[in-house]
Amino acid sequence: MEHGEKYQGRFWHLLKFVNVVLVFCFFILCFGAYCSFFDKRIPVPAPILNIVDGFLSKNGIKADFSDIRFGLDFSVVAENVTLRARGTPENFFMARRVSAGLNLKDIIFGGMPVRYVAVVDGALSTSYSDVRKLPIVKNIEVMLLLSQSRYSLDFLKFNVHDMAFSIKGKVDEGFSVVDFERLKNVIAKKMANKPSEKPTKKGDLFQQYDEILANCETIKKYLNYFANPSVDVELGLLRDGGNFINIDFKSVGVNVDNLANAKNLKATLRYAHTNTVEKITANVSADYLDAPKYNVSIGNVNARTGVHVNENDIALFDVKLSIAQGILDGTIIDNVIVSKNMLTMSSYKNDWNFFVAGENSRLSGNISIGENNKIICKFDGDIDLNPLFTRKELADIPEMKDFSFPHGMSISGWVSYKVGDTFPDVDVRIDASDCEIMRLAVDYVSADVCLKDGILDCSNIKAKNKEGWGAEGRFIQNFKNYAYDITVKGNLRPMAIAHFMEPWWTKVMGAFTFANKSVYPYADVRVEGVWGAPENIWCFGFVEGENALYNGAKFEDFSLFVWVNPQRITLYDIDILAGKGMRKGHCFIEWLYDAGNGLTSYDRQRLFLRSNLNDVELIALGGDDAKEVLDVVKFSVPPDLILNGLMFNPDNNPKKLRDIFNADVSVQGKTSVEMIDVYNATFSARSDTINTEVFDASFIFCGGKSTGNVYLQKRDKTMFVDGTAKANGMNQGMFFDFLSSLGNETNKEKQSNAKKEEILGGSSNGEVHAEIALKGDVKNMSKAIGKGNISIDSRDFLKLNLFGRISKAFRSINLPVGSFDITNVVSEFTLEDEQLRLSPIQMTGPALRVVGVASYALNDDSIKGELKTYPFDKVDNILVSAVNKLVNPLADTVRITVSGTLENPDFSAKITPADVIRSEKKVIEKIDKSL
Length: 931
Prior knowledge:
Radius of gyration: 62 Å
Number of strands: 48
C-alpha cells in the first residue's frame, strides 16, 4: 500500500505540472492570436540584438536590416538583411528575409538557443564587391534545423551563375572526421608534388571567403559549357551511424568550344562509411556524346568506379566505361566496354581492358597509354572488315571494293595510335574463311598484317581458292601514295588473277586451258606498282605447268620467266614440250612501250623462237602473225626453226610500219612454198608480211640437189614469186612433170587424162641439171617470166630416125643407117608469154650431133622446133666414114622439124639447100627467127 500511495502522489504532482504548462501555452496562444488579429509586432529585446551584433562585430561584419521582430513561433525575423565587412562600403550579402527560431527553454535553462535558421532570397559576393551589382551566389534559400546534438539541413538552395545547387542532410555533433582528415592529407601530399606559381598563405576569415568566391568566378567559363546545370547534395555526418555524402550533377546539354557535345550529362559521387565498411563510388553518364573534330559520335555513355583512399594514395577500383552505340570516324560500333581493376595516379595509363561489339564484330583486349600519349592496344576477336573498306582513306582505291568478308575475320595482335595521326600502327594475325579477295572466291586465308606509317604489310599470306588451287605470298600497300607490292607463289589458274594484273597478263595467259583442272601451273610472281597508274609497274615472275592447251594446241610441259617494267614486258626462257617430248620450243617474247603512256598500248613486239614444233603448235604460239607465214610455207614434218620477229601494234602504228621476221629453217621431208615442193630443205628467210625473201636455200628438188633464193611478195589475194635456183641430178621424168604442172588448169586436166607414152625415153634414169631465174604470179605460173640453162644426161633419152622407115628397116637388122641415139641435151631457155623457148639447143649422141631451136607452149602442151643434124659427127670408123661421105652432103640440106605435143611429138624432115653454104651459127639464127 505504501508503494501504491507513493506512486499515486508522484502522478498527481506530475499532473499539476502538466496543467501549468498547458495553461502557459494557452495564454501564449491567446496572446499570439491577439497580436495576429490586431497586427501587433513584438520588438526584439535590445539584449538579444546586442548579442547578435557583438557576435558579428567580433568577426568584422556589420549587419543592417529594414525591420526585425519576434514571430509567433518564438522566432526572430529580419527583413532586407545586408552584411558588409567593416572598412568596406559594399555589402557582400543580402537577403529578403532571415529568420531564426528560438528555444525559450534552452535560453532559460541553457542549451541550444536556436531551433532553426532560414534564409529567403539571399545572395553573396566577395567582401570587396557590391552584391547588388555583382552577385556570385544567388537565389539562396536555407532551412537549417538545430537541436542539442544535430544539425538538420532541410534544404540549401542557391545558384552559382547558371548552376543550381541543392543540399540537404544531417550533421551530428561529434561525428568522425578521421576519414576526411585522411582524404585531406592524401590530397595535400599529391598537391605538394606539383609546383605552384604562388605560395599559399593562410589568411583571415574574409581572405579565405574571398578565395572561395573567386574560385566560383573562375569556373564561370567552364559553366558556360553546360546547359541548365545542377548539383544535388545529400549528406549525413552521423555520430553512431557512419557518414555518407551523395553528390549528383546534371546538365541537359554540353558544348565545349564546338569540340565536343553531350546530351543529358549526369555525374554522381557516393561516399558511405560505417564502422566496418568504407565505400566511395562515382558514375558519369550521357545520352549522347559527339566530337565532330575527331569524327566521334557516341550514344548512351556510362562510366562508373569505386574509390579507395589509404594513407598515401587515392585509388579507383572496378572502373568501367560502357557505350551502348557509337560512331568512331565513320565506323559504327554497337557496344563498347572499357574497364580497369585498379586505377591510381601512377597507373592510370596502363592495363585498361575493353570489349567492343558490332553487328558482326566481337573484340576484346587491353589498352595502355605510352610515351607521347600513344595509345597501345592488344586485342583478340572477330571483326567485320566491310566498314574498313568503305573508309574515306580507301574510297579512291576502286580495287578495295574487290574484297568481301561476309563472315568477318579472326584477328589477334596489337595496334597503337596517337591522337591526331592519320594512321595507326598495327601488328596482327588474321584468319578468314569463305570470303572474296580481289574477286577471288577463297576457301580460307591467313596472314600476318602490319600497318606502320600508312604502309600495310601483309606477310606470310596463305590462301586456298575454292577451285582447289592455293598460293602463298605477301601484299604491301602504301595508303599515302597507293603504291603496292604483291608477291604470289603457288599453284594457280593464270586467268583467275588477270583482273588485278595489267592487260599484258591477259594477252599472254588468256589462251591457257588445262586438261587436269586439279593441277594448275606453278607461279612465283612479284608485282610492284601504283594503283591506277600503269605507267608505274614492275613485275618479275616464273611460271611452269603441264598438260596445257594454248590456243587449241596441247603442250605437255611449259615454263617461262616474266619481267615487266614501264617500258617493256619480257617473257624469256620460255621452254615448251609437245608430242610426248619429241618436239621442243625455246622462246623469247617482248612488248616495247615507247609512247610513254605505260602498259596500256604497246608500240612493238620482239620475238625469238628456236623450235621443232609443228604447224599447229607454231600458229597457237604465234597467232595470226605465224599463220600468215605458214600459209606461204608449209611443212609436212615439224621443222627445226630459228625465228626472230619484230611486230608493230596495228592500233598504235601511225607510220604503218610492217612486221619483220627472220628465220633459219632446217626440215626433213617435204616443204611446200605455194606450188613448189622441195625436200630436206634448209634455208634462211626474211619477211615483212608483204615481202618474203628465202635465201641460202638448199634442198632436194625433183630428185636432185638444189640451191637457190626466192623472193615472195603478197599482192591482194595472191603471191608474186621471183627466184633463182640451181639444180644438179634432177630426175628427168619428175622435172618434166613439174614443167607440165606449170600450165593452166585445162592443160593440167588434159595431161592427167592422156595416155602416157614413153616418147622421151630414160625418164626414170635421166638426169637434169639446170639453172633458172623465174618470176610470176603463183596462181598463174603459166604466164611467168624466166630464163636459164638446162642439161639432160640419159643413155636412151631419144632415138632419131633420120630417113624415116628406111632408117627403121636398117635398124631392124642392126645397121645404124639414119637411126641415131640422143643421150645428152644442152640448151639455154627463156620463159615468157606462156612459152618455154630453148635456144640454142644442142643434142648429142654416140654418132650424132643436133643443133637447133625448140619451144613448148604451157597453155596447150604443144611443141615445135627445127633441128640441124650432123650424123656420124666425130666418128672415126672406116665403114661409118664411107657412109658419112654418102650421107653428109644430103644431111647438110635437111632440117628435122618437131611438132605436136610433148606426150605425142611428130617429127619430119625439111630440105634447105642453102644450109650447105651457111655456117652453123647462121643456121641457128635462121631457125630462131622462123619459130
